[in-house]
Amino acid sequence: MTESLRPSATFGVNVFDRRTMRERLPRDVYEQLLASVEGGAPLDDGVANAVAMAMKEWALARGTTHYTHWFQPRTEMTAEKHMAFLSLDRKGFPLETFTGGELIQSEPDASSLPSGGIRTTFEARGYTAWDPTSPAFIMDDGVGGTLFIPSVFISHDGTPLDLKTPLLRSLAAMEPRALRLLKLFGNRTVKNVQMTVGSEQEFFLVDEEVARRRPDLIYCGKTVFGSLPPKAQQMEDHYFGTIHPRVLAFMNDVEEELTRLGVVIKTRHNEVAPCQFEFAPLHCEANLASDQNQMTMGVMRKQARRHGFRLILHEKPFMGLNGSGKHTNFSLQDSEGRNLLEPSTNQRRNLQFLAFLSALLLGVARYGGLLRASIASAGNMHRLGGNEAPPTIMSVYLGDVLTQLLEKIKEGSFSDMPDKGLLDLGLSRLPSVKIDNTDRNRTSPIAFTGNKFEFRATGSSQSIAGPVTMLLALWSWGMDRMAEMIESRTGGGWDITDAALDAIRQAYREGSIVCFDGNCYASEWREEAQGRKLPLADTTPEALALYLVPEHRKLLDEMGIMSDREIVAYYETRLEQYFKTVDIEMGIFSSMVWEGVLPALSQQIGQEAQALRDLPEELAGQATGWKEDLGRLLGLRQSLSERTKKLEGLRKSLADLDIETQANRLTSEGLPLFEEARALCDEVEGLVSLPVWPYPTYRDLFSLK
C-alpha cells in the first residue's frame, strides 16, 4: 500500500480541527479560541471574524460553495439550511463572504419543528448558535461540498429546541462533580474531566429496487407485515460470516468518507439477522461522539443510495428476526488521559475507581426511570425485551469479581475472595480486581465490560444525545452523594481510605437494588425487580411518563439540564412522535391491505373457484379438501377486511382527543388489533401464489444481488 492510500494520510482532511486551526489562525486568535472551547471564555467579535475568515478560505479551497448551521432538532435526525458564500458588493461585483456574526448565529424557521407546545406556528423565530467544541467539517456531495457548522438550536427566548443543548448542559453539570470527587483522592493537577463514548451502530441493507416496491419500507422504515422464509436466522450462520462483496464495497466507501471526516470505524461485521450489519467507532468525547454518530448515519444513507441499497435503521424492521440497537459504551477520562473506570495497581486509584462506579449505581438506583424514558420510542418498544435486546427493566451487570468485592466491602470482610489472575489493589484490607475477567451478560441493559460501561438499550435510529444526557444527570447526582459521604467522614477525622471504603459500603447497600448478574429475560427476574421496586414500563407511553415523575423533574431542573417547562415540552414532543409514528404505520398497513393484499386474495379465491368449477365431473367428489381450502381463503378475506376497518375506525375516533389519550388508546386498543390484522396478512402471504402476491417477500428482501 502506498503512502497516499493509507487511511492516516486522509484522516480529518475535511475537518476544521485543531491542527487546521493552528495552521490557519494567528497564534493569539487560536489561543483565544481554545480558551473559549476549553474554559468557556467569551468569544469576542474580532476573534469570531478571524475564525470565520480562516474557515471560509479553508472551505473554499476544498471546493465548497455553501455553509450551513447543522443542528439536531428533537426528531432524532439532523437539520440544515444552506447559505451561499457567494454575494455581491455594492457595485455588483461577486465575492465570497462569511463574517463572524454569520459563523456564530443563524436564523432558521422554528415553528415547524417539534417543540412540545413551546412554539406556535405564528412564532416562527428561532436561532442556531455555533458550538465551537465540535469542529466544523465539509460534507462532499460530489458536485461541490458544503461547510457544516455544528450548532445548538433555540427559540427566540433562549429555550432549547434540540438534543445538543441538554447534552452540553449535562456535560457541564458532570465535570465539577467529577473534579470534586477526584480531589478527595489527591488529584490536584487534573484540570477537567470528559465523558468518552463509542456507539456501536447496527443496521440492515436490502436492495433498493426491491425495497421500493414496499410502501412500508419507504414510509415507515419497517415492514408492517411479512411472513418469515423457511430459512431466516435459525442456522446462526450470518453472524460474523463472510461479508457480501457489495456490502463490503459499501462499507469501504463509508469508512473512507468518514475517515476524511475524522471518524474512525474500528470494527465492521455481519450481525445476527440476514442482511444485518454493524459498525463500531473509536471512542471520543461525548458531544463529539454524538455528532459523529449523526455524521455516520448520514454518510451511510448517502453511500447506500450510491451502492443500490436501502439503509434500514429501524429498531425492528422485520418481525421474527433480531432488531437493531446502538450499544452506547461510556466512561470518564481526566485531563491527564486516565480512564476513571479502569482498575489499576495504584491504591487510591482503585478506591477512586470504586467510588465512581458506586456513584453510577446510586444514580441508576434512584433515577433509573430516566434511562428507561430516554430510550422509549415506537421502534424500540418492539425490540426491547426480545431475545436480542435487553429487557425494559434497568439493571446493572458487574460480573462475579466486582460483585463479590462489593459484597465483601458491604460486609466489612475481605477473606475468601477469588485469587485467579487478579491485579493487586495495594491495600491489605481490600482484595484485588482484574479487568474483564468474567463473561459478559448480553441480557443486561447496563454492563460493566472491564474499563467502561455499555448501555445496550439505545435504539439504532436514535440520537445518542438523549440517553447520554440522562446517564450524565444521574451519574452526576451519584458523584455528589459519594463526595458528600466521603467529606462527612474525612471531616470527622477519618483517613481517605477508611472514608472511601465506608462511603462505597453505604453506596452499594443503596445501589445494589439495580445489580443483577443473572438472566434478565427470565420471568423470575421481573418478579424480583417488582419486589425491589424498580420502575417497570413495558410500553412507550408508560416509559415516557417517567419524565414527569416529580423527583426526575427536580433532578434535571436542579442540575441545570432542563427546566421544568422544558421537561414537560420534551415529554409531549416524544409522546406526539410516538403517536404519529404508530398512526402512520397503521395508515400504511391499511392502504397496503386495500391496494394489494385483499385484491391478491380475491384473485387467488377467483382462480381457485374457477379451477374448482373446471374440474371434471368424475373428480369433483375428491375435492372436499380443496373446498375447505377455498373456505379458509374466504374466511381470511372476511376477517382481514373486518379488522382493517375496525383499525381505521379506531384511528378516526382518536382525532380530536388530547395526545396522552391518543397515545394510550392507540397502544392499548390499536396495537393488539394491528397485530391480529398483521398475523392475518402473514397467513394470507403463505397461501397466495407468488405471481399474485403484490409485494416483495422477506425471501426477496434478504436475497442480495
TrEMBL record:
Single annotated GO MF:
glutamine synthetase activity
A GO BP annotation: glutamine biosynthetic process
Domain named GS beta-grasp is located at 65-158
Pfam families assigned to the protein according to its UniProt record, in alphabetical order: Gln-synt_C, Gln-synt_C-ter, GSIII_N
Q: SMART domains in the record, alphabetically?
A: Gln-synt_C
Q: Which part of the chain is the GS catalytic domain?
A: 163-597
Q: Which Gene3D superfamilies match?
A: 1.20.120.1560, Glutamine synthetase/guanido kinase, catalytic domain (3.30.590.10)
For this chain, the family text in UniProt reads: Belongs to the glutamine synthetase family.
Report the protein name in the record.
Glutamine synthetase III
